[in-house]
Amino acid sequence: MNILQQNYNQEPQETICKTHNLEFIAVDLDMSDKSQIKFFCGKCLVDKLNNNKVTTIEQSKERIKQIKTQQQEIKTKENQTRLNYYKNILDQIMDFKRSIYDSLEKIHKQIQQYMFPIQKEKQDLQENQYQLNYFEDIKQLSELYSSDQQQSNNLIEDKYFIDELTKQFELSFNNAEYFQTLDTFKNTKQIIQDLMENNIIELQPLLQTKNEYKTPSLNRICVNHKKEIIMIDMDSQNKKIEDRLVCVDCISENPQIKYQTIENINKQWIDYNSESQNILLQYQKESKNKRCDLFNQIASMRKNYNQKLNEISDKLISEQFQSIHKNKDLNYIKRVSIQSLEGEQLLKDLKQLIEKEKVSQNQTITSFKNKDTIFQKEIQNHLESLKQYDQLDIQQSIDILKEIPIERNIILQLSEHIQQLSKCIQTKDENYQNYIEFIKEVQEFIDQAKKYQCQINLFYQTITLFQQHSNKIDQIQQLIQHKTNNQGNKQESILILYQNLSEVLNDYIITFGNKNKQMKKYNNIQKLELDLVKLTEVNKDLEIEKTNLLNQMSKQLDEKHQEYQKVLKEQQVQNQRIIDEINAKLQIQDKENQQYKVQLDQKTQELINLKKQNEEDKLQTIKTLEDQKNKEITELNKRINQKELELQAIQKQLDQINQEKLQKEKQQKLELEKIQQYTKALLFSNTYKHSNFQISEGGKAVECNSGYYYCLCEQAIPKTGKTIFAFQMLSGTQFFVGIGFRDIIQKNNYINAGVGYGSYLINDGGSMRSHHNKDVENKKFSFTFTTNDIIIMEVSIEHKYIKWTRQNNPLATVQLEIDTYISQELYPCVLISSSKVKILDNIPNVELK
């Protein structure tokens, strides 16, 4: 039974809540601002609490149902995602495991292949242990006494082989699969972080029953009237936010203002937040896809890059196996004496000695050189291909981050169409081979288009960098000039430093200009074209202006001539009328009185004079018009001459620029002649050398028969400017070339190189020696060289450096710092053993850098 009806049945009363259709269970005793008593049901009490954590049983059941559904969806999605990234990790680990297995299997086969001849040699030694053959044994004994070194060549080869295996083993744990596995772990961590941030149960607010009889309001009170905020002013300008919130009294005080309800503004707020959320989600999706594409691109780049490096490494290791047999042949040539040669070999070697055949033309050496040349060419091709792939991959990665260019989009469309076409082709088709050829041609075109797109982007970047660098050079020049002018005579030492800096900068500008002539031409073409267009437009405007002026003057002359003809005609008509009148009067007067004859003669003379005056006025008017026309033509010609003078001034500026260019080239030519004079005068010293050296070719060539010893040149390196000279390796394979302090080298008996031995050298194997820097000792920082190679050396005492360059290979260049605080002079020198070196008079491809 209802609570209200248990004890008070005498008064019939409404006991059901009209809003929620539930029984009343409570009453509001506060009647201070109400006209009647108010009753509440259970949901009314919950709404009255205004607390999202207090709810009715029915509402809690509905909320539990929603949360369980949401939890199930989140859990299902979470489990699927976890399975996916663990599967990706397993696949990647299997790929890495397979890669490691392949690498170890390859190393295992190489070691087995290397062990096979060792085991065979061991077996041969055991079988022949007690077999004595005097002639064979005496031959081996002779070879031992003839050999310069007693170290085991096999152990040396093993050392090199173990080094190669070590490098290959290190590469096994530095490959694409290893880095892709690490990237997979990092990507999985990011996925887990995203799941933790996004998979959160959203607690929806309680669906409170809307009271249709109550005006919606904000949870705020009007400061002025202490009433609920029910409307907001959204249209007024320059108004504070607090002043826009109004209650019912505020509305009555300002009825002219258009207010909006809380319900309407709430809809706008929901729409605005929804739109913002959609935009943010779309941007996050696009950003995530872009990062995913870039991640895949980087992974592909790393895989291709490491694959190409592995091919190069395999090629080098394969060549290492072949070099073992080469070393054996070389050891054989070195050990065998002529007494042990027999038969055809003895006759062949004697014939070579008698005919004085060059050592470099020996068939074995030539064969070795040809094979090495082919091998080096293959490695170079691999590296060039690697560089192209690297540039192309980097450009594609940049395209992913930026907006996709139109060309790349078209190329992608071509690739998709070709793939679709290849899927549709059937092997049974009679034109199958033609389709294959066509697809191959189009695929080659697509690859070429990708390379071109990459190269053209690099070209545009180079143009931009060239322009920026040219502007920076101009800025530096202006700064140096400004500093020099402001310095005056206050600090002469600083002024000298600025002047030296300006000279060095000018040298760089000359070198930069010589190297970038074509770039300058390309960069100036557009400027010249614009100047030519401007001059053409100016000339065209002048021609139009000239034509307009002539037409205007001609028109004016025609109008004035027409006016004059009109005036003259009127004057003639008037004169004729006067004559007629006079003749009529004369005729009358002649009849009446003869005395008017004299007057008639006078009038006739007056008419003659008047006509003459009219003719003179006509001539004077024509002359005036012609003078005015000539004056205007003169002014026009003057303006044209002025424009021609301006064009001549521009041409003069161009001639001045060409003259400055010729002067710079002349100055460069003088510096080049100075370097060539030093090179032609450069000779090996007969005094400052070891006794094992022989000087030939007038001091231009030097040869050492045995041991590593120094031979210095006579001429010291100038302490100012740049000095360039070149050595050619005529024979042998053991070279050091460079510069040195003569007194220190002489003090050390012309032997040894390194820290404290007075020289800066590079050897044929690519390692370097420094007098003062122990960090470069025996480390390979440079290129290698051999017989017939030409090494060009550039030395600057002022700038403390020496630079070596191998001819015909700009990339084969290395630079080393030199110590110039020692008061001694530096001399070109060589440190060789069983080799011959020559000084070149003419340095090939020399440039002032």
**CATH superfamily label of the domain at 682-839:** SPRY domain
Structural class, from secondary structure content? Answer: alpha+beta
**CATH class type of the domain at 682-839:** Mainly Beta
Instruction: Specify the CATH architecture of the domain at 682-839.
Output: Sandwich
Strand order of the largest sheet: 7-8-18-10-14-15-16
Give the terminus-to-terminus CA distance.
Answer: 110 Å
How much helicity do the residues have?
A: 55-70%
Low-confidence stretches: 7-12, 324-332
Query: Radius of gyration, Cα only, in angstroms?
Result: 52 Å
Give a count of the beta strands, DSSP E runs of length 2 or more.
Answer: 18
Distinct helical segment count:
17
Q: Overall 3D geometry?
A: flat
| CATH fold-level topology of the domain at 682-839 | Jelly Rolls
> Mean of residue pLDDT?
76
Strand content: 5-15%
Report the biggest beta sheet as strand number plus sense, adding barrel if it closes.
7 strands, antiparallel
Coiled coil: 525-670
Keywords: Coiled coil
Strand-helix topology:
Elements: H1 3-6, E1 26-28, E2 38-40, H2 42-49, H3 57-127, H4 134-146, H5 153-172, H6 176-198, E3 231-232, H7 241-244, E4 245-246, H8 248-253, E5 260-261, H9 262-335, H10 343-354, H11 363-401, H12 406-424, H13 432-487, H14 492-515, H15 517-592, H16 596-681, E6 684-689, E7 693-696, E8 701-704, E9 709-713, E10 723-731, E11 736-741, H17 742-747, E12 759-763, E13 768-769, E14 790-796, E15 801-806, E16 813-817, E17 826-832, E18 835-839
Antiparallel strand pairs: 1-2, 3-4, 3-5, 6-9, 7-8, 8-18, 9-17, 10-14, 10-18, 11-12, 11-17, 12-13, 14-15, 15-16
Helix pairs in contact: 3-5, 3-6, 5-9, 6-9, 9-11, 11-13, 12-13, 13-14, 15-16
Coiled coil: 525-670
Keywords: Coiled coil
